[in-house]
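Task 17 of the worksheet. Students: predict the tertiary structure of the chain below and write it out as structure tokens. Keep your answer in the requested format; marks are given for formatting as well as content.
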Amino acid sequence: MHLAHLRLRDFRNYARLDVDFLPGFHLLLGDNAQGKTNLLEAIYLVATLRSFRGVGGAQMIRHGQKGYFVGATVIAQGQHETKMYWSNKERSLALDNRPVRKLTDYLGVLRTVVFCTEDLQLIKGPARARRRFLDLLLSQTYPGYLPLLQRYTHALRSRNALLKQPVLDPAALDGFSRELVSTGQEITSRRRELVPKFAPLACLAYRRIAHEAEELRIEYQPAVKRDFAVELAQSARRERAYRSTLIGPHRDEVQWLLDYRSAAQFASEGQKRTLAIALKIAQAEYLTSLHGAPPVLLIDDIMGELDLQRRGGFLPLLELTQRSQGQVFMTATEENWPRELGRDAQRWGVKDGALATYDTGASQIKASG
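Model answer:
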């Protein structure tokens, strides 16, 4: 699997960009605020239809413009064309020149794993970030999971809206409660099945990077302990007081433990950063094991912050990607790019929303910014 072509129009600081990419290692070099991360964001958007920066569509439109366009050619058991347009008034998504009616028909065309500074939220951020991590991994590996999650979210929002009404409608509340329980039980089951499959990969990745300094354990802590329907009924009085649904997988937690102590509470900043990287490496390895091909790796300016030992933890994943004719995009400045990881890289210069082949300094693509 690899991204063969990327086309941007009015996306972030890119006015126009058309660029071809081969499989292999691509190093995006340039000063800060030139558009390196924006390029990774566009690739991630093609894969997941969301930004890894946690922003909405309006923030990705180039200043002064009405909307953005992102198109891609993906090679993976055939060739696929994706096109998306976003503005406040119009939104469209097409795959192979046909409108996408169901997200399950689209997601999986391109699989990516991103490594970025925001990954620290997986360790020290709210539980929502850890639930999203599990949900993304399940959406990338289980086709029915995303529609299931959407049904649960719809029932939860509708139920919460009812609980906020001054007069409760028992029949409507009961209907949304049944949907909540039905979908919620399966979500909990899927998450519970995922963690023991994923945990050994994460533990091994952490040992590779930290050189067995601490033992990593992962504990899934579902909000529903035994019977969702019973526990939901038991919380009815508290729900009326708080005007919100207080039990369900939207309250699940995942604990990362280093030597049986909470990483969020007791780990150093270096340990937290190491753990965040290990989780993403494990995500990539898990996807590779299930799909038989590595995802496209997006590594956003984090290597310069890591010592040689921690950077070495990436080598098995990068070597596997190279052997499998996969693809890696890594951003860095000229001063901090790790040369031991980019020996065979195609180097690109990024400046003011334009790309040029770095070795010659001459533009090899149609780009302006």
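Marker's comment: The first strand starts at residue 2 and ends at 11. DSSP finds eleven helices and 16 strands in the chain.
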